[in-house]
Automatic annotation (TrEMBL):
<keyword id="KW-0819">tRNA processing</keyword>
<comment type="similarity">
    <text>Belongs to the TtcA family. CTU1/NCS6/ATPBD3 subfamily.</text>
</comment>
<keyword id="KW-0067">ATP-binding</keyword>
<dbReference type="InterPro" id="IPR032442">
    <property type="entry name" value="CTU1_C"/>
</dbReference>
<dbReference type="GO" id="GO:0032447">
    <property type="term" value="P:protein urmylation"/>
</dbReference>
<feature type="domain" description="Cytoplasmic tRNA 2-thiolation protein 1 C-terminal">
    <location>
        <begin position="274"/>
        <end position="303"/>
    </location>
</feature>
<keyword id="KW-0547">Nucleotide-binding</keyword>
<dbReference type="GO" id="GO:0005739">
    <property type="term" value="C:mitochondrion"/>
</dbReference>
<protein>
    <recommendedName>
        <fullName>Cytoplasmic tRNA 2-thiolation protein 1</fullName>
        <ecNumber>2.7.7.-</ecNumber>
    </recommendedName>
</protein>
<feature type="binding site">
    <location>
        <begin position="48"/>
        <end position="50"/>
    </location>
    <ligand>
        <name>ATP</name>
    </ligand>
</feature>
<dbReference type="GO" id="GO:0005524">
    <property type="term" value="F:ATP binding"/>
</dbReference>
<feature type="binding site">
    <location>
        <position position="54"/>
    </location>
    <ligand>
        <name>ATP</name>
    </ligand>
</feature>
<dbReference type="Pfam" id="PF01171">
    <property type="entry name" value="ATP_bind_3"/>
</dbReference>
<dbReference type="GO" id="GO:0000049">
    <property type="term" value="F:tRNA binding"/>
</dbReference>
<dbReference type="GO" id="GO:0002144">
    <property type="term" value="C:cytosolic tRNA wobble base thiouridylase complex"/>
</dbReference>
<feature type="binding site">
    <location>
        <position position="158"/>
    </location>
    <ligand>
        <name>ATP</name>
    </ligand>
</feature>
<feature type="region of interest" description="Disordered">
    <location>
        <begin position="308"/>
        <end position="328"/>
    </location>
</feature>
Amino acid sequence: MPPRTCALCSTNRAMLKRPKTGQQICRECFFYVFETELFKPGDRVAIGASGGKDSTVLAYVMKTLNERYNYGLELFLLSIDEGITGYRDDSLETVKRNQQQYSMPLKILSYDELYGWTMDAIVSQVGRKNNCTFCGVFRRQALDRGASMLGVDHIVTGHNADDIAETVLMNIMRGDIARLGRCTSICTQGEDTIKRSKPFKYAYEKEIVMYAYFKKLDYFSTECIYSPDAYRGHARVFLKDLEAARPSAIIDIIHSGEAFEIREEVKATQKVQQTCKRCGYMSSNDLCKACTLLEGLERGMAQAGITDRGRKKLESEGPAPENLRTIPFYQPPSAGNAAILLEAP
């Protein structure tokens, strides 16, 4: 049987089959469709850089398109150092090489600098079961704070289609209505937060790996040493089983998440968004999740911010001591023109 020709150019030999469209396309057409479905022009943009395949490909593609189409974007690499020995310290070396390879300014903000705790120290207190809760909350706020320090008004991250589908499944399993309603949004922004976008929302993880391989990109591929015990792992295993039976399952789950509608009476029960009285970051309570978690760590009650029982126990201990270590007050950057991401149809 003769080799198939590319479904797009009808000239070159097809090299791969796109999972979400079923098209068999050549390598050059793969590069073209992968690159041109991502974004429209903007101005100052921070790329969340971990050194992994997703953020490395994102940085490479944004630099490539910025130069190819004269978008005039001012691009920055923003890395968060969680303080995980043998993992993040090694991956940051990759980010530093990317800084030289892509000629982009690099900002590194550490948990130790911002919160006074590293993830290694947190895990020594809470164990491996709930450590991802701390890391996820602290990382999100650290990205916003790092972007504010850079004076940008847009953060792009390398979350891919597999990540989004996993998040949809996790929120369903948890019954988390608030997050389920916004987890598939390609762009998100609160009144006091920096705009965030996920350009790879519809890009399968396999495509990103292939792109990095074909382009011979320099990235770090070791998994976080604390992630094997994460709750997300259950959703990931389930999703891979679904994908094996039905390759379009990933994009189907994303579209299902997009189609979810929350009834008005349910919306009315959701907490009103406000700002944390202690650090000024967005919150649905008097104290944001990060401040609650940090107070629990500081007072030797690490579970306080994880469970309702822990939070009530913390409250029963009385007011926080005056010398409690706190997070610096958050000052969001002034509003400006942010890069606009093109959402796939």
